[in-house]
Amino acid sequence: MQLSSIPLFFAFGLTLASAASSQTGAADFDTAIQPFLKENCERCHNEKKHKGEFRLDTLSHDFEHGGSAMHWADVADRISAGEMPPDEEKQPKAADAAKIVEWLAARLKEGEAARLAKRERVSFYKITREEYANTIQDLLGVHYDPTDPTGLSEDSEWQGFERIGSVLSLSPSHVEKYFNAAESVLAEAMPPKPPVKFLRHKTALELRGNPADYDAQPWGHKARVDLWPGADLGGRPSPGQALPIAGDYKVRIQLSGLKPKNGRAPHLAVYATDLDRMLYEADVVAPEDKPTIVEFTTHLPAGNVNVRLANEVPGPSNLPRSGRADPRLPFFSIKDGRRPWQMKLTDEEGQPLYPFLILDWMEWSGPIVEDGATYAQREYLPKDISGARECLTRFAERAYRRPVKPEEVDELLQLVQSEMGHGEFFPAAMKTAFVAALSQKDFLYLVEGSPETNTQRLTDWELASRLSYFLWSTMPDAELFDAARNNTLHQPEVLRAQVKRMLADAKADRFTEAFPRQWLQLQRVGMFTPDKKLYPDYDAYLEKSMKEEAYAYFREVLRKNLSLREFIDSDWTMLNARLAVHYQIPNVEQDRFERVALRAEDHRGGLLTEAAVLSLTSDGQRHRPVHRGKWVLESIFGKSPPPPPANVKPIEPTPATQPKATLRNKLDAHKSNETCAACHRRIDPLGLAFDNYDAIGRWRTEEVVGDGVGENPKVDASGELPDGRKFTDAASFKKLLLADIGKFNAAFIEKLAIFALRRTMTVDDRAALAELARKSKDDDYRVQDIVESLVLSDLFQKR
Questions:
Q1: Do 364 and 251 meet the contact criterion of CB atoms below 8 Å apart?
Q2: Predicted structure pTM score
């Protein structure tokens, strides 16, 4: 009999733990638990043989220490679930195992108070660079791109999460970057004088770099720029522009886009080469004689912004060797008669054979600023020193996200006075104080707790920040600040209303991207660039669309308050035209993402069969079932497998004289190796279920194999779970996952809590997580309800 019907986390705070404490409280470790461990566990986790890099013989018996407590909780968890000892080993009696679980639960419960008492009075959680940019936008009204070459350092991550406080450090070099960033954003937010706006119109001949006298020709105004597949405009002259100051600029481009029948649409990409940043990209479809105008606004630094403007789709080249005698010859029209070098572009009826762009002009304008004083100047910059204290107080309270002490304002005011004493003008002196405030720990960190008290419950100000950075990735707005100031935010009805308001706000899109990206580890998509010879259709826009599908899918489930079951399997997904071509799903023409009904033959539905998830567990050349299985184990079941043993032999290629073998066949070698077999029995089936999908997520029925002889072998996606349940393919495997929805529910809630609280979950959080899982089940696992329940819980409202 397995004990999975009595999960360990239910033992923490319920009568089971209390009973165990009263019955075995006097028994010491050596008599209560050591004999069981020696007989059932230590033969695999000892000095000579420590499977999973885990030893029991050296594990501390201190249940008050967080690290050892977590290890003991894991031991009890695995015994409770029947995972240990493994099936091939002699099994203990159920009653004996139950006593061990009860004893450990009681000791962990007793250690909880001691562990809480040891916690620091103040907790610091550094905001990420993404949150920094959002906060600057809301505080000062200006954009800041931290990913620019002179921006902020990349954030460290832990198991995909980029906002774990104990991982995000602040070194002296980081401080200098934050100081420079503060000076940069304040220079834009509070310019000494209104910027001079400009409008720069570039004709097709200018974009092509034709001689200046071409403009004077009678045909000059008719000239256009042809962009064949893979062609681009860049270098000198550049489609870019010299910009007088940093700010928001509008770019407009008039062009036509010719799409071949049943083919790809041409794809316009505007890329800032020096910044290593895509400014804009989209499919463009418009007739030659009815061009469209695309426009976008982007934030750019001062100076020359070099731009590469390209048609990023595969197709034939139009270099001189391909037939164009003189690349300087202007392009005019296809409809007026094809030139010899245009013959391969269209058929005899003039219909395009390849995706093709025709540009007419490009226009730059900006900076885009309101007339008169900026938002930051109106809010924080008084006319003279007499209003400085009031404005500094307002700025500091918003920047620090709490009431400020008089002495904190005194320090900023003294800085202003000192600067003026050294001859600085008042506005510049005020900006020095603002730079100082933006470089303080109270701005760069979410500070929870007080040196004076050791209370566990957050203040309303701290709660406002925790909630805002959870759902909006930015500082609280005026309504949240007002609720904190009135000390009403902690009231359940007020907090519930704020959650609903915030999720309905456009800023919640930050949550619907940041959380699935970190939970599902989508940062790894494209880490190993797919081999161009094996996957010639893979491109940067497909990679971006893969990620966007996951974000749009999560957003749809959250906004409509659908069940967690949708993440496992569904009869719909979110697609744009590029991804629909990749999936071979018809009738999707829009470049934007839309909800699309799926057919059985599409072999999609849920997160697990999305191309982003399938490709992030590949190496750019082949699918990797073990990595896919590990991902399912971590992301769906919330379990981390032990690291592989050292010196594992790589998979051997099939000899040239032997028939071609699938990767599955080669992985069978693990089953004959005792060191590997125990883990691979649990991991491999979770990945092999998706063998019908290749390294970039395309459906297939046979595996393309490079080594060996003969025909490519058929895919076998069947398998058997450790509990004996069998499946035939991904569709039947997803049905088994739905039957285990409770496990996914618990894992999802823990991942959500890690994201929200900016820390890992500990043994002391298990009772709270179990209660949230129970409530989620009662609410039919609806995702928006899970978010609301988390915010209303003590887990969220306490340190």
A1: yes
A2: 0.85
